[in-house]
Automatic annotation (TrEMBL):
This is Uncharacterized protein. Keywords: Membrane, Transmembrane, Transmembrane helix. The keyword Transmembrane applies. It comes from Ruthenibacterium lactatiformans. The keyword Transmembrane helix applies. Pfam families: Trep_Strep. The chain crosses the membrane at residues 21-40, 46-64, 71-89, 95-113, 120-139, 168-188.
Length: 203
C-alpha cells in the first residue's frame, strides 16, 4: 500500500507524458471511428457518445495501467476538449471532456489506478464527456443553436435535430453511453488481462 501511495505522490515523468500523449492520440482516433458514423446525420447524432465509447475502453484502461499516476487521465480529458473545441464542436462538448476527465482521474486515483472495477467506472465517467453538448441542447435549444450556427452548422441540420429529439432521448443518451462504456471496458479487461496482471491491476 505504501508503494502505491508513494507512486501517486510522484509527479508525471517525461516517459509518462509521452505515454499519455500517445494513448490520447489513439483514444481520439478510436473516438472518431466509433462516433463519426453518427455525427453527420442530424437524426443519429444523438447516439455519437455511445459510438465514441464503444472502442476506447481497452485504450483507456491500458493507459491507466501503464501510467498509474495522478493527472494522466486529466491530461487526456484536456487534450480531447481542446481538439473538439478546435474542430468547431459546441463548448459544452469540450468542457464535458475536460470536467469528466478530472472526475475520472480522481475516481481512478481512489483505487490507486490498480483496481479493475474502479478503473472501469472511471472510463464510464470520462465517456460521459460527450453528452454535455446534448444536455445543453435539451436545456437551452435556442442558445445551443445560436452557438452551432456561429460555428458553421447549417440551419437545416439543427431543424432536423429539433424535429427528431423527444424529451426522453437525453435519458437514453446517458444510459446508453454508460452501458456501452461498461461493455467496452469489460471487453478491454478480458483482452488485456495479462497486461493488467503485469501492472498489478487487481479485481
Amino acid at each position: 500500500m505504501s508503494n502505491q501511495v508513494n507512486s501517486l505522490k510522484k509527479g508525471l515523468t517525461v516517459k509518462d507524458l509521452v505515454t499519455t500523449g500517445i494513448f490520447s492520440a489513439i483514444f481520439f482516433v478510436f473516438t472518431l471511428v466509433g462516433g463519426l458514423p453518427f455525427a453527420p446525420n442530424p437524426v443519429l447524432t444523438f447516439y455519437m457518445p455511445m459510438g465514441a465509447a464503444l472502442l476506447c475502453g481497452p485504450i483507456y484502461l491500458l493507459m491507466v495501467a501503464k501510467v498509474q499516476k495522478r493527472w494522466s487521465v486529466t491530461i487526456l480529458g484536456i487534450i480531447m476538449g481542446i481538439i473538439w473545441f478546435a474542430t468547431g464542436m459546441h463548448w459544452a462538448f469540450s468542457l464535458g471532456y475536460i470536467g469528466m476527465g478530472l472526475i475520472a482521474d480522481l475516481v481512478a486515483g481512489a483505487g490507486h489506478y490498480r483496481n479493475k472495477a474502479i478503473n472501469l467506472l472511471s472510463y464510464m465517467l470520462i465517456s460521459l464527456g460527450g453528452i454535455y453538448t446534448y444536455v445543453v441542447f435539451f436545456l437551452d435549444p435556442d442558445g445551443w443553436a445560436s452557438t452551432m450556427l456561429n460555428n458553421g452548422t447549417e440551419q437545416s441540420y439543427i431543424d432536423t435535430m429539433n424535429a427528431s429529439a423527444p424529451s426522453w432521448l437525453l435519458v437514453v443518451i446517458i444510459a446508453g453511453t454508460l452501458t456501452v462504456a461498461a461493455l467496452s471496458g469489460w471487453v478491454g479487461g478480458k483482452m488485456l488481462k495479462k497486461q493488467f496482471e503485469k501492472a498489478g491491476i487487481t479485481a
